[in-house]
Each structure stands twice: as C-alpha cells, then as structure tokens.
Amino acid sequence: MVKIKKVSDFNLNSKKVLVRLDLNVPFRNGKISDHTRIISSLPTLKEILKKNGVPVIISHFGRPKGKKNNNFSLKKIVNSLSKHLKKKVIFCKNCVGLEVKKVLENVKIGEIVLLENLRFHTGESSN
Questions:
Q1: Ordered DSSP codes for the chain
Q2: Total tally of structural domains belonging to the chain
Q3: Which stretch of 20-24, 49-53, 68-72, 101-105 has the lowest confidence by average pLDDT?
Q4: Integer Cα distance of 92 and 11 in angstroms
Q5: Is residue 96 part of a domain?
Q6: CA 56 – CA 38 distance, rounded (Å)
Q7: In a domain? residue 121
Q8: Can you give the pTM of this predicted structure?
Q9: Mind telling me which residue stretches traverse the membrane in this protein (predicted)?
Q10: Which member of 26, 45, 54, 90 has the lowest number of beta carbons within 10 Å of its beta carbon?
Q11: Quick check: is 112 in a domain?
C-alpha cells in the first residue's frame, strides 16, 4: 500500500508551499456566516508555518464566470484567516502573472499569501 505523505513529512524551511483550499464560504449581510472551511484549513497552514515555510493559498469563491467581480473576491476572507492564524495575511490582487511573482519574491517567513480567486480566469472552470 502506498503511504501518502503529509505536510509534516517534508522539509519546508524557507520554502513557499502552494496550498489549494476550499474557501468557498457562505456570506450573510456582508459577513462570513460559517467559518468551518477556514477553520478546517488551519492545521495545515499552522504546520507549514511551524516548519518555517510560507503558505501560498489558492482557492475559488463563487461562480464569477471567468471575470473579475469584487463580490467574489477572496479579499473578503483575509481578515478571518488573519484572525484565526494570528498572523499577517498578504493579499495578492491576482493569481497569475508578474504581480504574483513580485509578492512571492518579497514575502518573509512567518507571513501567509492569499492569491485572488482562481475563477476570475476562464481556464479555472473550463479546464
């Protein structure tokens, strides 16, 4: 039987770790109404941080149909992630391109990066 490796099995020191999370959380009156998906991601993110890695979070949120739409921006998740992790979360307004590259070049150990909604790009849903 193949043993599936866990985050704790890897040397993550000074490495950026791409983490696909399900942050498609429900909102009511402009606020997150259920934090379950965020809370369930915390052990993985904390383990990466504990091992001196930098979590780089990607996720989708809603169905924006391949177009940027602020109603579906993951920026709305930043405060909740930061509060639960007690760490600064750096939000990148894109999930591809030079802007992401620049953010990743400047991020420091102990920080967390959240990239913008993958579904703002048509390839995420059509692929």
A1: -PPPP-GGGS--TT-EEEEE------EETTEES--HHHHHHHHHHHHHHHTT-EEEEE---S--TTS--GGG-GGGGHHHHHHHHTS-EEEES-SSSHHHHHHHHH--TT-EEEEPPGGGSHHHHH-
A2: 1
A3: 68-72
A4: 26
A5: yes
A6: 15
A7: yes
A8: 0.89
A9: none
A10: 26
A11: yes
Burial (CB count within 10 angstroms: exposed 0-12, middle 13-18, buried 19+), residue 57: buried
Owning domain of residue 104:
10-23+33-126
Q: What is the pLDDT of residues 25-83, one digit of tens each?
A: 888 888 889 899 999 999 999 999 999 999 999 998 777 666 676 778 899 999 999 99
Both tokens of residue 107? 């991020």
Residue with tokens 């620049």: 102
107 part of a folded domain: yes
- CATH code at 56? 3.40.50.1260
Query: What is the token pair recorded at 118?
Result: 């993958």
